[in-house]
Design a protein that fits this description.
heterodimer, A: alpha+beta, three-stranded antiparallel sheet, B: alpha/beta, nine-stranded mixed sheet, 24% helix
Chain lengths: 84, 226
């Protein structure tokens, strides 16, 4: 069993109004050193596959077909083996 | 003209569409569940607004893999008329049938108001009854209607005259004030404003009716071909 953690983030060229709003709240709280806030998603997928290569292959296809919208988002992922 | 309205879990705009088509065209709309695999018998497909699958992941992202989408892609390929309104627009983009992506509104608010649009193109099956440059009032109601695409796509949209409606006063941050775009073949249109909620004076505006009258007109003149 393998678990993938997939991080989906907005591309640099895409405005993140949610991040901007959080940034302005952090400023209000006094964190004047905050220069940028970007909000993304963390998706965890647990899979019944034998090895790391198969897991990586599957996650890549899942991410590109559904989990991320490559027009506006980037993704990266980490894999860890889950012992039953 | 036989019209289908595909319904996904979380769609909520189909009643408005059914009512509008009955009132404006005296035609009936067949609601079809998203598990339907064959839409060959229909001449036009209207994808309603709402929040399919609760807008989980991204609006339209999960609906895009519903069985009905395969048949919609097939009918689009044949040149049938397909109109996605609100969430229906987002679904068509996720399915790759229309360009761009709709992001969260720039100011984060849910926008629910009457907007004025400029009809940029009348050479389409959806706008042939409007005048070029006509200014019309149509309401919007969305949280994610901020049209975005990269510069190259934007240039292509302009070059191919695919920008059909623009906001006169940009409500949500959309690039190029874009409110509605069509595909290259011009038989698939997506728009964030709701023409089905603008078909009678008591609604505040009847300016949306001509979208549907245009479709019927086109169908009468051309049959299936776009």
């Amino acid at each position: 069993m393998w678990r993938a953690k997939i991080f989906v983030t907005l591309k640099k060229s895409v405005l993140d109004p949610e991040g901007e709003a959080v940034k302005s709240s952090l400023h209000t709280m006094g964190y004047s050193e905050v220069e940028q806030v970007r909000i993304g998603k963390l998706i965890e997928v647990q899979m019944r596959v034998e090895d790391r290569e198969t897991a990586a292959e599957k996650v890549k296809v899942m991410a590109e077909r559904l989990l991320a919208n490559l027009e506006i988002e980037n993704y990266r992922f980490e894999l860890e083996e889950v012992k039953a | 003209m036989k019209i289908a309205a595909p319904i996904f879990p979380g769609s909520s705009g189909e009643r408005d569409i059914i009512y509008a088509i009955e009132e404006v065209l005296q035609e009936s709309v067949t609601p079809v569940w998203h598990q339907e695999k064959e839409l060959n018998q229909f001449d036009a497909i209207l994808i309603p607004g709402g929040s399919s699958y609760g807008d989980y992941l991204r609006p339209g992202a999960l609906a895009r893999y519903s069985p009905v989408m395969e048949s919609i892609a097939k009918e689009a390929e044949k040149g049938k008329l397909i109109l996605g309104i609100g969430n229906g627009f987002q679904i068509l983009q996720e399915a790759g049938l229309l360009p761009g992506t709709l992001l969260r509104n720039k100011q984060l608010h849910f926008c629910c108001e009457l907007t004025t649009l400029v009809v940029e193109q009348t050479e389409t099956p959806f706008t042939n009854r409007y005048k070029n440059g006509e200014v019309i009032s149509i309401p919007i109601a969305h949280q994610q209607g901020n049209f975005f695409c990269d510069e190259r796509t934007l240039a292509e949209l302009k070059e191919n005259n695919q920008i059909i409606f623009r906001y006169q006063k940009n409500p949500n941050g959309s690039i190029g004030d874009i409110a509605g775009v069509c595909n290259k073949k011009r038989n698939v249109l997506g728009m964030m404003p709701h023409p089905e909620r603008a078909i009678a004076d008591w609604m505040g505006t009847a300016d949306g009716a001509k979208v549907f009258i245009s479709m019927l007109q086109h169908w009468k003149e051309n049959g299936h071909a776009a």
